[in-house]
Amino acid sequence: MTEIMVIDDDALILESTMLALETQGYSVVTVFSGAEGLTQLEKSCPDLILLDVMMPGMDGWETLRRIKEFEGCRDIPVVIFTVKEMGGEELEKRKKLGVTAHISKPFKLEHLFSQIEEALEKRG
C-alpha cells in the first residue's frame, strides 16, 4: 500500500487530507511539524510527502532541505501546499530543493489526487 506523509501545523487540514487520501486507498501518516516529520523519517520513508510551507518553528523549506539529507529518503516526491503565492524566490527554492509539485490552499481534492498520482508515476 502506498504511504503518504502529510506535514502541516493545521489540525483540520491534516484530518481532512488524511480522510480524503484514505478513501483513495493510501496509507497516511500525519505530523504537526517539520521536526516531527524528520523524526518519523528516521523510522521509515513514505512513498510521497505532502508538506506545508508556512509552519511555526521549522518552515517547510527548511524541513525539505533536511529531508533531502536523509540517505534513503532524498528521492521521495515532495508536493508542497501553501496559501502563499509562489513568487520568484519561492520558485527558485522549489527548483533548488527538487519539489515535485505545488498545490495552493484551499485545494480541490481532484487536483490533490491528480498531483499525487503524477508524482508517484514520475518516481516509478
Write the SSE topology:
Layout: E1 3-7, H1 11-23, E2 27-31, H2 34-43, E3 48-52, H3 60-67, E4 78-82, H4 88-97, E5 101-104, H5 109-123
Parallel strand pairs: 1-2, 1-3, 3-4, 4-5
Main attributes?
124 residues, 5 helices, globular, 5 strands, alpha/beta
Produce a short descriptive summary.
The chain is α/β, with parallel strands linked by helices.
Write a structural description.
The chain is α/β, with parallel strands linked by helices and 124 residues long. The chain has a single domain, classed as Rossmann fold (3-Layer(aba) Sandwich). The protein has helices spanning 11-23, 34-43, 60-67, 88-97, 109-123; strands at 3-7, 27-31, 48-52, 78-82, 101-104. Strands 2-1-3-4-5 form a 5-stranded parallel β-sheet. Strand 1 (3-7), helix 1 and strand 2 (27-31) form a beta-alpha-beta unit. It is globular, with a radius of gyration of 13 Å. The model has no long low-confidence stretch (mean pLDDT 89).
Structural category is alpha/beta
Helix amount: 40-55%
CATH class: Alpha Beta
**What is the CA-CA span between the terminal residues?**
15 Å
Specify the overall morphology.
globular
In which order are the strands of the major sheet placed?
Answer: 2-1-3-4-5
CATH architecture: 3-Layer(aba) Sandwich
Fraction in beta strands: 15-25%
Helix-strand string: EHEHEHEHEH
What's the CATH topology name? Rossmann fold
The largest pleated sheet is described as: 5 strands, parallel
> Taking all residues together, what is the mean pLDDT?
89
Rg over alpha carbons:
13 Å
Number of beta strands:
5
Count helical runs. Answer: 5
Supply the number of structural domains. 1
Poorly predicted segments: none
CATH superfamily: Response regulator
